[in-house]
Design a protein that fits this description.
The protein is 75% helix and 0% strand. With 169 residues, the protein is mainly α. The radius of gyration is 16 Å and the shape is globular. The N and C termini lie far apart (50 Å).
């Protein structure tokens, strides 16, 4: 259990660091279109969901490889954590902005941090639940759907609020 806790704490730190760097990577690479598939290309909520999704996906591969023998539910729990953390970004953002009537930068940072911590905490807790293994395919499909959606909707934006860049008026 100590190895799993360590992996989740290290994973949280990795996602927070990698997500923070990813926020700027598209601009730093001269707006490289491949980099834009994996990192935010604008300030929309949809693009900010990538800050949790891709770093946690990469981290999950390492944790799964490291812990699969000891924790048979680690695959499903990491998938569930990825989905949870990614979807909490818009949930927290829209909740606080509707309540306060405005966007506040420090709360945006808090949304990212809290989403990441909850994602790894949930993954840790559910890695210890034997029934979780039966949900591997379900959560795996959700991760694949999110992955493909990020790739497609990066450059083909529907006219929905979640995809709108608030810096463009």
């Amino acid at each position: 259990m100590k190895q799993l806790k360590y992996s989740m704490v290290a994973g949280s730190i990795f996602v927070l660091a990698a997500g923070s760097l990813a926020h700027f990577l598209y601009q730093w690479t001269g707006e490289n279109s491949f980099v834009g598939l994996l990192t935010p290309i604008n300030e929309s909520i949809w693009e900010h969901m990538k800050l949790v999704f891709f770093p946690m996906l990469f981290c999950a591969l390492f944790i799964i490889f490291k812990c699969k023998r000891s924790y048979p539910c680690i695959v499903s729990s990491m998938y569930m954590g990825i989905v949870t953390g990614t979807l909490l970004i818009p949930v927290f953002f829209y909740t606080y902005t509707k309540l306060l009537g405005k966007d506040i930068f420090i709360l945006d940072l808090g949304t990212f941090v809290l989403s990441t911590i909850i994602a790894f905490f949930a993954a840790y807790k559910f890695a210890l639940v034997p029934k979780m293994q039966s949900y591997t395919r379900f959560f795996g499909c959700l991760v694949c759907l999110l992955f493909l959606s990020f790739l497609f909707f990066t450059y083909y934006l529907p006219n929905l609020e979640i995809f709108a860049d608030p810096t463009i008026s």
